[in-house]
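SAMPLE LOG
Freezer: B-3
Tube label: C17
Construct: single chain, 629 aa
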Amino acid sequence: MTMSPEPTAVQVTRRTRPLPAWLALIADSSAWIVTILTLTVSRYLLADDSVVAMWTRVFTNVGLMSLICIVVFAVGAWASGLYRNRYIVGSLDELRALSIVTFGSWLVFTIVVMATVSIPRSVVLATFPSVLLLLGGVRLFYRMVVENRVGPGGDAVPVLLYGAGELGHSVVRQIMVDRFSGFRPIGFIDDDPKKKGFVVGGQKVLGTGKDLAELVETTGAGCVIICLSRVDSSFLRDVHDQTDALGIRMLVFPSANEALMQRRNTASLRNVSVDDLVGRHPAEIDLSSVAGYLSGKRVLVTGAGGSIGAELCRQIQKYGPSELFMLDRDESGLPTTQMSIYGHGLLDTRDVVLADIRDPEALKSVFADRKPEVVFHAAALKQLPILEQLPEEAWKTNVLGTLNVLNAALEINVERFVNISTDKAADPTSVLGHSKRMAERLTAWATHRDKGSFVSVRFGNVLGSRGSMIPTFQWQIEKGGPVTVTHPDVTRYFMTIPEACELVVQAGAIGEDGQVMILDMGEPVKILDVARRMIEMSGKDVEIVFTGLRHGEKLHEDLFAIDEQITNPKHPRISNAPVDAAPPEKLDFPHWLEAAKDKTALTKDASDGKLNRRTLALKDELIGDYAKH
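STRUCTURE (predicted):
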């Protein structure tokens, strides 16, 4: 089965073929003549006038008035673009323009009649709605005729569309006027039972998701297209499991963030990916609050060459900062980030900064020169196993590096500082977790040193970053295996990079001084299930090997620490907790490392196979509190 090809120019032309100007003029002129003639004749017939008298009046008055209306309407239609192919035939935009031009023509007609010609007022009043009905009817009829001549071919795959909303209506319209489409809609599925029986774009809502198996059997559908703008991974997994069991395809549209780059249409349909099934957690963003602290501001992002930092830069740029500075110590990542935002990677402008956060003097110089008002600190070492071997590197970058960035920000009195943390900082059992927890505490300390706002944002694993699970599994599967999983029961929280960064930007707007903002990552996902699903989707027979948990790894990650006091969220997907400040004058690497090892030993039971249910319970409780407010 092949995917529908990209629409060609021929397809687009047939889909939006305009009403030719000459034909429109003939049809509109006829509409005016027929309307005025019919109304006038009807009026005089009701008055029981003689036939000769009636026709004398009709031809004297109707001919002159029709000519005036036609001329005025034609001029207005040309000026408004109705005769210059500016509107899709039969669309609301065309109807709006048509109504304005018709009303203007009728107004001129009314003034002339009242001033010079004796035509009954009832005819004048009835002319506007009657002629508008005819003018609009002609265009709708033309559109219906044109669209009925195109459509999917006989060999198109019958599809069920899941979601009878705006996107579903748009999709069915695009498919039904595309004779090159590989799909033929046969009905809708929608989980709102009230919609059952509704007709959307000529297709009936047949039932809910619970009826999927039955509907596939009765309709002969060969594919299900998800037509929902914002959809969660857990929902996609459920539907994918059903379609797999039924032996049919499931297609999805890009996520909301991907869709910003291109218009959603049938050409953007694609097979469901592992990212869709694991990491999609769409969130509603308060654009006004975000724009309030980013628009027109000088913004600096550390770690801008990395996965998180680069996406943060792309998201921030949408809100119109006056300047966006991208700082990284790795020159190889900056060109890609700059190109994704500005269309070039020349590295010859002041928006790219090559500096190491371990170098305090270099940072102070950069901050003094660029004077950022908002700082997102994403630079960090994040690979747990190697930091277990080299804890001093975690200390230099994640602890001292964060302190250097904070000090540079304090010296220029930044308005807002957002530190990117990790779920491994919650009850840490690794060097990475302890270093990031210390970074949270240092950020809380900075709150008391300046009038600006200093917050941390904590979240779990992101999909697609360098060295992350999904790319590793893909490489292992392509090589024929084996796929390595640490433990049969290990779970992790996942989110796509764009959706995580979207919430980070939102958290920066609502964060309170000295607190850590904790993103809702959805339900934890079993890594073994992801590996099995990826192998199944590849169609290969690949072995799975269990390697055992590495030193410092948890069996189940937690977003909230046991002793953290979680407060009511200001956003349904973001919680917050206070952080104990750590004054930098007490920082000492040997003492920190010894304390980290002691705490790791005490919290080793976090890896004994017992999932910390407090995280899940707190999420439900906090979302309930948010709903009450």
